[in-house]
């Protein structure tokens, strides 16, 4: 199948030009930028039903084209569990306990349905790569322990070629007894993509980090670690993660999420941590929606926001993505798997709203997370699988102000999803005095 898109705005290349993008057999074959709108194609329609009538040259008349999104930190197993797993205090601790209890009566079907709902919503908003963390509690019934991983692996297969899903089970809190180790070894024989965990919550956090590295190195797996999701500046598993990364030659294979305590540290401590992270070639992901919700719950008066030092990390040359984390569960009661919405929240949380900042925000949900998780084979570069979306906005300012949901997602040589929302303002309303 061949298709040429005329007159797309591609702000991550140059916000002032229009681009024609030619696709052949699902791959980008040419890209051409120009200053003025060109004529020659059929008007593009975001309505799925109109697709059949369209020719192979479609004129998108200046709407924005972005590479597909990579959401590199989600919890698909927990998503949409809020109706049966509440969180009255709004703390991380209650969220963990509430979901842990509720998960014991979840069925395969229930979990799979919730996971699918989240993946389909993410896809409709433009996401084609997901790294999902999955709970792996070894002290529960065996069926409960393995349910999340089994369902995530099935889901990965069902969605292959539409959404790439990487499955990263979270190893349990350290220390481990014999049963823990038996189940962990069993897990590591499954076809998982890497491992994670939240060692800062362990009884022995630093040894918990070392244990994670032992398993990862033994099985040659990448690591993605929930790191110091705490308001306490003394929480510093990040330093052990740095040491272990260098010791095992794991540079470039370790991604760290949250880094909330880094936000609470004084400047000298923070500079030291950031310098060491750079030495160990760590990559990072901030999860601002969940952390704005969960952190600072013990504070009165001035409430800490819990979001890490995004701009300082980026200025030090550390790749930082932003991602969804939790969707409609006790850890974060909102969300729709829309990384554009998360980028906007990141703009608020990390004070990023300038002309260059918003382009950085777009990079933090597209090519940068794709590079962090090794998904650089698709996007909008010549020779790559064409993987992109059109969003009905005509400038970056409008994109971030409106977060339009009218989007068309392309990949695997076809339109995978089209979502169209009609907006009309009545004349009476617009003419009414305020
Ligand atoms: Zn998480």
Automatic annotation (TrEMBL):
Q: Mind telling me which SUPFAM superfamilies this protein's record contains?
A: Composite domain of metallo-dependent hydrolases (SSF51338), Metallo-dependent hydrolases (SSF51556)
Q: Name one GO molecular function term.
A: hydrolase activity, acting on carbon-nitrogen (but not peptide) bonds, in cyclic amidines
Known Gene3D superfamilies for this protein? Answer: Metal-dependent hydrolases, Urease, subunit C, domain 1
Residue span, Amidohydrolase domain: 165-397
CDD domains per the UniProt record, alphabetical: Bact_CD (cd01293)
Official protein name in the record: Cytosine deaminase
* Organism of provenance: Domibacillus enclensis
């Amino acid at each position: 199948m061949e298709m040429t898109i005329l007159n797309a705005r591609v702000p991550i290349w140059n916000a002032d030009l229009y681009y024609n993008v030619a696709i052949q057999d699902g791959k980008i074959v040419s890209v051409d930028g120009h200053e003025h709108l060109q004529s020659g194609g059929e008007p593009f329609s975001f309505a799925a039903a109109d697709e059949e009538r369209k020719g192979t040259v479609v004129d998108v008349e200046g709407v924005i084209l972005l590479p597909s999104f990579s959401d590199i930190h989600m919890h698909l197993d927990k998503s949409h569990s809020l109706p049966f797993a509440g969180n009255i205090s709004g703390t991380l601790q209650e969220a963990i306990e509430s979901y842990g209890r509720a998960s014991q009566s979840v069925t395969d079907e229930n979990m799979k349905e919730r996971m699918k709902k989240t993946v389909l919503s993410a896809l409709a908003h433009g996401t084609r790569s997901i790294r999902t963390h999955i709970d792996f509690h070894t002290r529960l019934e065996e069926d409960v322990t393995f349910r999340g991983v089994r369902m995530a692996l099935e889901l990965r297969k069902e969605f292959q070629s539409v959404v790439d899903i990487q499955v990263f089970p979270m190893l349990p809190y350290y220390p481990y007894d014999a049963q823990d180790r038996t189940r962990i070894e069993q897990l590591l024989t499954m076809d998982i993509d890497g491992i994670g965990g939240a060692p800062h919550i362990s009884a022995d956090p630093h040894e918990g980090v070392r244990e994670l590295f032992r398993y990862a190195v033994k099985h040659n797996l990448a690591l993605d670690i929930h790191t110091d999701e705490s308001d306490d500046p003394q929480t510093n598993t990040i330093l052990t993660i740095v040491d272990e990364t260098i010791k095992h030659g794991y540079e470039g294979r370790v991604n760290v999420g949250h880094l909330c305590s880094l936000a609470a540290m004084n400047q000298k401590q923070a500079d030291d941590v950031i310098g060491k992270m750079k030495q160990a070639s760590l990559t990072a992901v901030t999860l601002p929606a969940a952390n704005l919700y969960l952190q600072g719950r013990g504070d009165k008066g001035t409430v800490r926001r819990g979001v890490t030092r995004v701009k300082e990390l980026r200025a030090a040359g550390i790749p930082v993505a932003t991602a969804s984390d939790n969707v409609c569960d006790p850890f974060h009661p909102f969300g729709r798997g829309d990384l554009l919405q998360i980028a906007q929240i990141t703009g608020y949380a990390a004070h990023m709203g300038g002309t260059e900042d918003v382009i950085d925000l777009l990079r933090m949900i597209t090519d940068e997370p794709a590079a962090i998780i090794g998904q650089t084979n698709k996007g909008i570069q010549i020779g790559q699988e064409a993987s992109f979306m059109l969003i009905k906005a005509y400038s970056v300012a409008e994109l971030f102000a409106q977060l339009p949901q009218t989007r068309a997602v392309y990949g695997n040589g076809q339109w995978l999803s089209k979502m169209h929302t009609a907006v009309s303002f009545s004349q009476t309303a617009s003419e009414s005095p305020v």
